[in-house]
Input
Amino acid sequence: MTIKDVAEYSGVSVSSVSRVLNDHPDVSENVRKRVLEAVNALHYVPNNSARDLSRAQTDAIGLIVRGAGNPFFTPIISSIEKAILDAGYTMEVHQIPAGEDELAAGASLSRAKRLKGVVLLGGEFDYTAERTAVLDIPFVCCTFTNSFGTMDENAFSSVSIDDEAEAYRAVRYLTDRGHRKIAILLDSTHDRSISELRFRGYCRALTEAGIPQDKTLVQEIDYYDMEAAYRGIRELLVRRNDLTAVFTIADTMGVAVLKALHEAGKRVPEDCSVISIDGLEMSRYTIPTLTTLEQPKEELARQAVSLLINMIECRGGTAHIYLPAKLREGRSVEALSNADFQI
Amino acid sequence: MTIKDVAEYSGVSVSSVSRVLNDHPDVSENVRKRVLEAVNALHYVPNNSARDLSRAQTDAIGLIVRGAGNPFFTPIISSIEKAILDAGYTMEVHQIPAGEDELAAGASLSRAKRLKGVVLLGGEFDYTAERTAVLDIPFVCCTFTNSFGTMDENAFSSVSIDDEAEAYRAVRYLTDRGHRKIAILLDSTHDRSISELRFRGYCRALTEAGIPQDKTLVQEIDYYDMEAAYRGIRELLVRRNDLTAVFTIADTMGVAVLKALHEAGKRVPEDCSVISIDGLEMSRYTIPTLTTLEQPKEELARQAVSLLINMIECRGGTAHIYLPAKLREGRSVEALSNADFQI
DNA sequence: TTGAAAGCGCTAACAT
DNA sequence: ATGTTAGCGCTTTCAA
Output
């Protein structure tokens, strides 16, 4: 079932069929009608590969999502799509597992779809010029930037929160309220990525408050999921039942921690406070509501697309933007009472 | 940057390059090495459109996800991918908004990628032979079936839970425990889809228990999200503060309901029980843990792929399988005490 | 307004 | 083992 069949069926040339299908002007009503009829009768659907191959260029922007299944990305993807469509472009999404190379995926998609640019969501933080060379069209990193990489800042754009600073702010929120035994739940203290940055912020806040670092309050978990976080906090509680606050680097972890604390007989926030970063929808429905630094998801998406289109249309160069997170106060943090201070 | 450039750079023909790229035998080590060098030096990435267009056939199975952002789908997608890969096929995912036509999307993807078959996730329940005609390759419906449609059962396969029966089971779980004032939170009582089926199960359980239907206990919400569910239950509580149990047709709703009840000063399960269908990961971490009929997500995925491959490989025909949900007892349901029974 | 024909980049016969 | 070449289905000049 090709355009040729449609042409034969309707008694016109393939180019006429193509014109009708692409809403070109200069097609007689008669031809249009016959072609449309044929398309319907034959259940014809164009072959995108052929179309993309022959089209001189598309107005497509690619979106590479690394680590689908992360609920944090869901609303961002929607916002990115909206922004791209609003700007008159089309979007091609491609999901890849967390372990894969988003640059290679972007490059591949770029050739396949003749992309004008690429938005990277959930990528790594250590690009080198060599690695990014495969991607020879404009690209923008959304929700992360190249903190650990060596490559030229002018080669790409990025929009994210300042992970170190926001983690600092979260922990500072706790120290300001008298907490000193503050645990952190993270992926790794040295993954050269988001987890390491947020760990740095945690350390700085402690140092500034005159609290010595204590390894027994740091809990690394193997996987980035709720089950792992749940087990992690339980381990932590065995070791340090005296902690008064927990900082989790992601809301998913925070939700699991609330549950584990509840089961351990600790009231939140009376006995233990919890704060987190991300601002997921589900965190609004925990009991108590999770206090979290909400990432400006829609704004991150909008600015990422905006920067990318600037690059594509050659007005303005690259830029690296940090957006502030917004404190969403729930009921999971409480100041330590004087009695507790004494301890 | 095409295969031709690579051929010129390495001093061989395009077919040799193609052979190297596709791991064909009968290529000398010398040629292979030179081609690979050229690919590296030129940062060459094949154009998938061209490749797909010229390849006689692929081993690709398509997956159409309708309504991304539904956390229920996330683990199913992973399982489907695994099953497809394990069977020696490749997967092409395509996400579409909840309102769009998944059959058309499947047909389009099918032409574009020369698919062998399609898995439909999150589709409608009312296919007609006419509508499905566009999709001229084997397809399977995963987590739903054609309850309201007219089309021939032999034209496709499906794997799902029995929505009516499982809803009945959930509500029966409540009536068995003495509940009579049982509210239901759903999308619509007549959407000719999942919501309507589960509503039927609710009605049957009530009837069987000799409980007359009461419209004031039925709450339709506009959107299928947590915020809407939260508002919905609050409205319901204004109207019927005497209810003793709530059945929500999705876990996302259940989570929001737990929160709203808590805020309304109702203890779960002492004052009000909550039961739901789906079995999301997050429902394990609510306080109290949500009691839910867990869909066998992995098994749904595996069987869907298995049925599809049977159809593709022409061994065995179509089938329509209902898998049982599994009761995951949390702490959100309690039997009514004798005192309550008296009311 | 319409049709004929030249590619788009790649794969897969078919030759050599 | 390697090269030549005919398509894959579509869009898009260029002519008519």
